[in-house]
Amino acid sequence: MRGCGFRRKATVSSEQVRIxxxxxxxxxxxxxxxxxxxxxxxxxxxxxxxxxxxxxQVAPDLIRPLVPPELELDLWQDQAWVSIVAFSxxxxxxxxxxxWISCRFHELNVRxxxxxxxxxxxYFFSLNANSRLAVWWARRFWKLNYVYAHIEMSPxxxxxxxxxxxxxxxxxxxxxxxxxxxxxAKPDSLxxxxxxxxxxxxxxxxxxxxxxxxxxxxxxYEVQLGLLEDGISPADGLPSMTTDSVLAHYCxxxxxxxxxxxxxx
Length: 265
Fold this sequence. Notes:
Structural class: mainly beta
Largest sheet: 10 strands, mixed
Radius of gyration: 18 Å
Number of helices: 6
Order of helices and strands: EHHEHEEEEHEEEEHEEEHEE
Strand content: over 45%
Mean pLDDT: 88
CATH superfamily: Acetoacetate decarboxylase-like
CATH topology: Acetoacetate decarboxylase-like
Number of domains: 1
Distance between the termini: 41 Å
Number of strands: 15
Low-confidence stretches: 1-27
């Protein structure tokens, strides 16, 4: 949907939906230890830049049929959340390659928040990338729902434009300005719940593949959205995001270590 002009996001704020999670947040779910670096070697190094986070609250019953039954929805205030993360990956290197060999591409992923064996992570409805090699590799070895897409990311003065179009799918397009810094998300905040995720789950054929990433906590910034046209979410069976329905954040960069998937039967 198209928005007119640039606006500071105030319609859906973390203060409006901030609550105490009850048993889920206070003790039953460990949301902190996954931020530590695993004690086994990573298999890849990434650099993620210019990350645009768009978050939208949705009814759990709406997305429950879209999430594999092996995974439990991770809720905030009894509501599920779906996020689009649009960003650039200028440095992607398997650890067994020399440091001077790497690839680069843009990615837009659509995800929700889940639990597996009481561990908090994300489940991806789709991951769109403009690298056929990355798509093949991730589908083959990581069991992730990667699809090839045409993606453009370009600046115009202080405005960034991100456009993603995959075959037989309406496009995603957003323009935005980066606002004042917010700092790192506080552990009891909605921002922390949404962005500080270090586990991903990919169920396939009765096996839950899980993988970890490690990076410093995100340095978040406010975002002022201009245009937001979301054809990706409906293609994944989800409600379209609009400028009036999303909570938006931005992060300039994180350096990431990626750890090999492990299987849980």
